[in-house]
Amino acid sequence: MSDLHEPTTDLRGRLARAPKVVLHDHLDGGLRASTLLELADEIGHELPESTPEALAAWVQRQADSGSLAAFLEPFSHTTAVLQTPHALERVARESVLDLAADGVVVMESRFAPELSTAGGLSIEEVLDAVLAGLHAGAAEAADAGRPIRVGAIVCAMRQADRSLEAARAALSRRDAGVVGFDIAGLEIGFPATDHADAFALLRENLLPFTVHAGEAVGPESVAQALAVGASRLGHGVRVLEDVTVGGDDASARPHLGRVASYVRDRQVPLEVCPRSNTQTGTSPSIAGHQVTALRDLGFTITLSSDDRLWTGTTLTDEMVLLAEEAGWGWDDFRQVTLDALDAAFIGQDERMALLEHVVLPGWAD
C-alpha cells in the first residue's frame, strides 16, 4: 500500500487527471439519465421519473435497496429504449465520451446484443450499431484532445440459450472492434459450463473471454469459469471464501485453497467493481470489501465501475472511495492501472506503446 497521504481533494484531482483503464463497463447500465429520458420519450415508454436528476436518484435508490428485484427493475427501462440502431449508436458514443472525460484511455464496453433484438434487429445488426457508436465516440474524444482506445465485449445471458449465436457474431466482427466475449446475468443456477459449446468455439478461434463469476456465487462459480478457459473474472471477489486465515494464531499465514491458489498463482485478473459489489450484497461495505484483502494476498486486481447509472460513480469516484474508506493510496491505484492495461484485450505492441507514452508518464509521482 502507498505511503502517500494527502487530502482527499488533492488525491481526487490527481486521480481524475491520471490515465485509467476500464475493463468492466456495461453499456445498458451506463446510460446518461437525460438520454434515457429522451429515448423513452421517442418511443412512448413510461419512466418512473420525468427529470434527469430524479431519474438518476430513483435508479440509485433501486440499486441500494438490497432487493435483487428492485436492483434489476431499471434494466427493463434501459433495455426497452435500446431496440433501434439510432439508440444503440447514441448510447455507445456517449459512453465513450463520458469515460474519456474521466481520464480513461482504454475502455472495453460490454453488452448483450440479444437483449436488443425484441424490436426485430438481429444480433449482428445490434453489434454493428454499437460498434459504429463506439468508433464515433472515440473519434470525437480524440478530436477533443482525449484519445481513448475502445473495444467491445459481446455478452451472452447465462439464463438464455443464445451464447453460441452470440459467440459466432462476436467472431464475425472481431476485425471491426470486438475484442472479447463474456457471459452475464443470473449466476445462481446457471453455471458457465452450460455454455461450453460457445467457449469451445471461442478457444478454437483464439478470441479471449472473461466470465462473470464469484459475484453471486463463491469459489465453485470461479472454478467453473476457469474450467471453460476464462482469461479474466468479472468481479471474482468471492474467491476470497477459498482463503482460510490462521484461526487463533495471528502470525499464521493465510491458507489458499485450490481455486484461490489457481487464480493468484496464475495471476488471473479480477475485474472488481467496488460500489456495485456493495449494492448487490457481494461485499459488506467499501471498508470491508474483499478487494483490499485480495490485494494484500497478491491477487491481480483491476478496478471498474460496472453500471455507472446504478452506482452513480466514475472510476475516479471508485478510487476515491477506496482511498477514503479502505486506506488505498496513489501507488495502489497506479498498480491496478498497470495490471488492467496488461489484462486488456489488445495487442502487445499497442499495449507497450500505451504504457510508454500514456500510462507511465501519467502515473509518475
TrEMBL record:
Residue ranges of every copy of the Adenosine deaminase domain listed in the record: 19-358
Record key words, sorted: Hydrolase, Metal-binding, Nucleotide metabolism, Zinc
Domain of life: Bacteria
GO CC, alphabetical: cytosol
Gene Ontology BP term (one): hypoxanthine salvage
GO molecular function list: adenosine deaminase activity; metal ion binding
Metal-binding in keyword set: yes
EC number: 3.5.4.4
The keyword Metal-binding appears for this protein: yes
NCBIfam families: aden_deam, PRK09358.1-2
Name of the molecule in the record: adenosine deaminase
Taxonomic source organism: Quadrisphaera setariae
